[in-house]
Model the fold of this input.
Amino acid sequence: MNILIQNNISLKRFNTLRLDSTCDYAITPLNIQGVIEAIQLTQDKRRVILGNGSNVLLTKEHYDDSTAFILMHRLDDLDIQDNEIVVEAGRTLHDLAWFTMDNEVDGYAFCEDIPGTVGGALLMNAGQWEYTISQYVHWVEVVHCDDARLERIYPEEGFFGYRHSGFNTMNAIIVRSGLSITHGNYNEIFEKIMYYKRERYMKQPRNYPNAGSVFKRPYKNGESLYVWKLFDATSLRGHQIGGAQISEKHPGFIVNVNNATSTDCVNLIKEAQKRVKETFDVDLELEWRII
Done:
């Protein structure tokens, strides 16, 4: 068996905002062949690919069977082969970081507290501090949605950018990647993991569900701006609509404080964009993927 098909299921566990959304049709591939079969079975449907569901906003309480959700969490093999880390798209970045520590591979400590999967990280070139996942990529395998063809891609210079990759413009599903290996020291890697984790815990909201940073860092006249400063200047810190709130701890986040709905989140985003535009003439661009 390569796939699991489910009908009328809750998507609450598949989005880190924990919005209560349901769908009529979902396929869980159990391996790469399963991804190929999932594509073949859904040629007449709109496809939504979900890994851990971070950086995602589900805007409907229910998706009918015209939309097929492909749930990637079971595509999670992780190993070292031929002096490369070979990892499938559904494996979490948390797991990748601890795996590299156990195998004394340096460079991946920054991944530990990023709440997503390898596939999502490659799609948006996830990172923090001075690191991004693209720095370590040798190759990426995708399955094309038009003909269910498996292809290995060797990204060239310019393929990855800030919170962006060439995969955003491809009609394909990321399934596996080969990542570089630099040998390190177990204890030193552990200390790095703890440092990054501590820094993020001190600055980011952890007491309520959230989906990571809502907006990309904006620019005006070539100058980099901070979202939290713009929000503080427009009285958005702590602003709440329904059960959704702009975090009091870090206004770059929207948190689910009381059974927030999709509509609550959408309206809060629109209000934030409106205030910042009116006050600073700055257009806030979403980092989240809207479904």
In short: The chain has a mean pLDDT of 93. Residues 219-290 form a domain with the Uridine Diphospho-n-acetylenolpyruvylglucosamine Reductase; domain 1 fold (CATH 3.90.78.10). The two ends are 29 Å apart (CA to CA). The chain has six helices and 23 strands.
